[in-house]
Amino acid sequence: MKKISPTTQLCGVILHPAGHSRSPAMHNAAFKSLGIDARFLAFDVIPEQLASAIAGCKALGLRQLAVSIPHKQNVIPYLDEVDQVASKIGAVNTITLRENRLVGSNTDCIGLVRALERTTPLKDKRAVVLGAGGAARAAIFGLLQSGAHVTVLNRTVGKARTLLTELGGERAGALEDLAKIECDILINTTSVGLSEDISPVMSKNIPEGSIVFDAIYSPEPTRLLRDAEEKGCVSINGKWMLVGQALEQIRLWTGLCPSEQILADAFDTAGNTLSQTKKTI
Ligand code: ATR
């Protein structure tokens, strides 16, 4: 990696708490492989400091800022511009400095699409999204853009219906409805499985032969993915979404595309030094 010099550029991620972030490992590995003279740090920003943190980043000329939990929605009022995709999703996970303007984007949806497309094309597939939070919004948007047919199931059915109205998709329902739905790809965006060894759906309801993706990347594998594997389904870990969204962030800033494998290896190495249990988005 190039030595730090007066021309070295700074990027980072804002989140709270910050100790678990694997983004610095991924981005710095990508910068090194692409020969980009930049460094990427994690900044622990409490919600009360969000406005001043963003103003400080702009004043210091940080080139790109990744945005993670809990700031993805609250950061929007502090930006000069939010692109169409992020506006529709209602969340920003990337801020890029362009001609001294802070431009907000969302690469979570592309991250999910890339993660799934490693295994299958999405066009005309029947996708079921579990959950109706911010992660679900990005997933639904990405899936619809890719030509999939989307059903949204959530513990609170009203929230699933609201998402359908706002974003599109075909059906909304309760988590238990999975038992009676045709599904090629099952996508978990709920937080179930993050801190306990439980699954958002009963194993018997996981559709035979489906592809099952869990946005939770640690513990690995989650109960949902273990159940899916036991039923002979293809399972995809949330790591690939995190890799995909980071890759797209780097492309947005530099126009260059790092190797997916370099990011994935950096993600694994960082995980070996972290024991906390966290979710992709
Ligand atoms: P994010 O923005 O990361 O998606 P979120 O907005 O807090 O997070 O959404 C969390 C999702 O997990 C929601 O869909 C939530 O369901 P509700 O809308 O009914 O709250 C879901 N979730 C959280 N705990 C759950 C549980 N124990 N069982 C089922 N779903 C759960």
Tell me what the structure shows.
This protein has 281 residues and is an alpha/beta fold. The chain has two domains: 9-106, Leucine Dehydrogenase, chain A, domain 1 (Rossmann fold); 110-239, NAD(P)-binding Rossmann-like Domain (Rossmann fold). It has nine helices and twelve strands. The chain has helices at 23-34, 50-60, 84-89, 108-117, 134-145, 157-167, 223-230, 239-254, 260-272, and strands spanning 9-15, 38-44, 64-67, 81-82, 94-98, 101-105, 126-130, 149-153, 171-173, 185-188, 211-214, 234-237. The protein has a six-stranded mixed beta sheet. The protein is globular, with a radius of gyration of 18 Å. It starts with 8 loop residues before the first strand and ends in a 9-residue tail after the last helix. The model has no long low-confidence stretch (mean pLDDT 95). Bound molecules: 2'-monophosphoadenosine-5'-diphosphate. 2'-monophosphoadenosine-5'-diphosphate binds at residues 131-136, 154-156, 159, 189-192, 200, 281.
**Oligomeric composition of the shown chains:** single chain
Task: Label the CATH architecture of the largest domain.
Answer: 3-Layer(aba) Sandwich
What is the strand tally? 12
Question: Outline, from the CA principal axes?
Answer: globular
- Outline the low-pLDDT stretches: none
Strand order, sheet with most strands: 2-1-3-5-6-4
The level 1 CATH classification of the largest domain is Alpha Beta
How many structural units, i.e. domains?
2
Q: What are the secondary-structure elements, in order, as H or E?
A: EHEHEEHEEHEHEHEEEHEHH
The gyration radius over C-alpha positions equals: 18 Å
Mean pLDDT: 95
Percent strand equals 15-25%
CATH superfamily of the largest domain: NAD(P)-binding Rossmann-like Domain
The structure class reads alpha/beta
Q: Tell me about the largest β-sheet.
A: 6 strands, mixed
* Helical proportion, percent range: 25-40%
Report how far the terminal alpha carbons are from each other: 28 Å
CATH overall fold name of the largest domain: Rossmann fold
